[in-house]
Amino acid sequence: MTPKTLLATWPSWAGRTAFVWSLLYATGAALAALTSPSFGYALLAKGTGTGAEAGAAVLYGAAAVLAYALLRRPGVRWLSSAAWAVVALCLTSGFPALLSPVHLLFFLSRNQEPVDWTALANQFLAVLGAVLWGCAALAHRRRRLGTCPYCGGRGHRAGDTDARPATRAGLLAVAALVPYTVLKTLWVLGVTPGYTGTGRPGADPEYTSDLGIRLYDHGVDVTAVLALLGMALALALTRPWGRRLPRLPLLALGWTGAGALAPFGAFLAVFGVLTWWGVISVGLTDHAPWVVAVAYGGFCGYGLALARATRVYQRATRRTCGHC
To answer: pTM for this one?
Structure first.
């Protein structure tokens, strides 16, 4: 069987593959708990130790049981919903692989600590698990509903989806990044609202590459440029001109950005609000709490809106399914 044929028949093997993956990942976590190396089993690259590894073994062992139930009980509704919780668990384990300044800037800056390649490989393995579990959840839900396991409908054709939800999602995604983009642009121009520290906000040599510092000296903040590119991605997914761009790269960028930024922004939003209310006193001491809650927390709104826009784009550009 060729790789193309294997991918084309994913509904038939997604559940079994998720079951095998869960067993292997849980076994690895159990071995890590019994031996000295952690093999990268840690929440957000922290909390290594026997407790974290044993907890991962239990959680992913339970996921294997759930995967077995998906195969044996195709008509039970709540099983596919529970499968999405496993997707979230996998993304939590693999989150640093999706979005980690330490990993990304290692290749650009000499100021970074060496990458733990074992942990990074483990995190990418967890991301793979999220993909497999997402496929298993979709296959189970579509089998239960009696719809086409490949496209989720009957005779769906590209362009059938109403464009209005996608347009709204794209505009919401752009709006969510406006506070961050404006703030970082003001900072690089020397106006520093919300920044109480010393030095240049957004240009910490420990987390900024040498190229980034040189651009900052000339009035260009790299993260603000990335935010503008994120806005362009959201618009490409929701505007007619985006249909002329390659489909697969847009989908890959859309789902990766949504999966990485939505939980990241949610954490920062909650963290900023708790600091703002005085519930906690630790955090970014040189940033006002509203900066963390509003500007950085806006990544959550962007991620959610981007997920919606990507989903509508995916359905609207899907070719005619030959299986239904």
So the answer is: 0.69
